[in-house]
Amino acid sequence: MKTYFNNIIHGVTSAFEGMSITFSSLFFPAVTIQYPEVDVRSVESQRKTYNGPMMGMSPNYRGILHVDMEICTACLICMRACPIDVIAITNVKCEKEKFPGRSGKMAVKTRAATRFDIDIAKCMFCGLCVEPCPTGAIYHTNEFEMNTSTVEALVLKFVTPQEAADAEAKGKIIEAEAALKKAAKAAAAKEEVAQAPETESKGEE
Amino acid sequence: MESLFISLGLSEDLAIFITAIIVGTILIHFLAIFAGFMTWIERRLAARFQFRCGPNRVGPQGLLQWLADAVKLIIKEEIIPQGADQTMFRLAPFMTVVGVFATFVVLPWGPNWIPADLDVGLLYLISITALVVIGILMAGWASNSKWALLGGMRAAAQIVSYEIPVAMGLLPAILIAGSLSMGGLMRAQGWLPWDWIAFQNPFSMLAFLIFFVGSIAESNRVPFDLPEAESELVAGFFTEYTGFRFAAFGLAEFGNCWVVGATATAVFLGGGNLPGFLGENALISLLVFSAKTLFMIFVLVWLRWTLPRFRIDQLMEFSWKYLLPMSFVAFFGQAVFMLISWDSPMIQQVVSHAMFLGFLGLLFKFSTRVVANYKEHATPVNSRATDYVAPPVTEVEAEAAVAE
Lengths: 205, 404
What we know:
The complex is a heterodimer of chains A (about 200) and B (about 400).
Chain A: H1 2-24, H2 43-49, E1 65-67, H3 77-81, E2 87-100, E3 106-119, E4 138-140, E5 155-157, H4 161-204
Chain B: H1 2-7, H2 12-49, H3 65-74, H4 86-101, H5 121-128, H6 130-142, H7 146-177, H8 182-187, H9 202-218, H10 230-233, H11 243-268, H12 282-304, H13 312-340, H14 345-378, H15 395-403
């Protein structure tokens, strides 16, 4: 009997409290950002039209990938890190360069990319390629709109065919030089090897 | 209006017939438009309760959203499932609409604005709403679908259970007014809150609450929407319906909100009574009545977005173990109170004024709770006090723990 009346009191009071909570929620502004009308990326333009609690995008928002080819060393680390083979890179040798990466750490560039493709259609925005990049060349942007008429157009190409051809031509020259040097070195080494046994045998005698 | 037609030279029967057709046309258009408008009210308010915007694209503030929805539903393909009972399947949605629309015969719009002021108005209201069950049960049975049948059976069980507390909840009002007709009930009340039947004494207040809760259950709205529980029964009795027939079910459901609000207003909240100095201005009276009804509809929506859905056994328990005994208490208490205060209007006046004062106190308590909850919610979660102490276990919870 006591439980019965307690149930009634409990039901009435909890409904009373619940209704006060829902009523108080009527006085809050809507959280919804009416997206195409509000520029989601800029905080200033949002402040003009929107007074909800959400302000601007998160700084570590994982949007569409971008590669800064100026500081990319074509080291293939991102390609290997990608779990679903979204990134495709081929590279050739280039002149040795030393420059600071995004974090200020010095990086050495010995190779240039002749192809750097990211298939955004396949990409799942996990960020595993961004983490190991030694120079910080590959990163997520705030961009999230990318409508194209074909799936092929979703493949981002960061190296133009012209650049690729130039890099390839340069690479060939460098490689030829390197091959010449190597041959010279090898010849020198051979001579050394050829001379050495003689001196050694002399010493034994 | 009848006299107008009679003066034009028509016979009395023909005049009544033409008047009935005109009034019926106006009312069914009101029902259809209000049901559409009600979907907009419901969705906008639900959005506000959840910090969203709600439909705001079609027309100013999304006001014409219901038109777009209705057009879409009407031009949709009509599908009748294999093995369904064709005639019953086609008929069922219109039975529910008729059940809701027929109540408009006795629903008042002002002190003297009632389509037909039947002497048995309340009795008619209670019995005609049972027609909705037939429509729902027909829909469930004819659909040839397990979900629909389960929903229909649940609806029948629920409406039969809640019919009794609703009727018992109306009895104290009938005792006070001494009349079953809507006009008589409204004339028994004044325009001031303490002249309303709901504030006459604690028992009539209890009866009002029982009637209101029972009516929500009868109109199958959350928290009593077991017949159409999405998580269990897809959509309940109208699972197999498409297009216009689906829209007819929606029309009945949302039109029923007006019926619940208007009945509560007319029987318990003073109807469209105006203060003496305003005389009997029909238009102002209509506005007052509509405002009260719309407030009751707001409470309906508010309750819907506050409380979660009942379980089926809780639903039955609530009706038979709680509402029904309480309605007996209300009826009996009202009768005893009338016996005591029969010869002394003084006691009646004091009790009704005290009831209204108590209500104001409750309103004040409520507003303080609203402010407290607003403040708590406005504080960002990370800046709340860290020395959080769990609230003490209430007696009910403690007993439940012991029982387990």
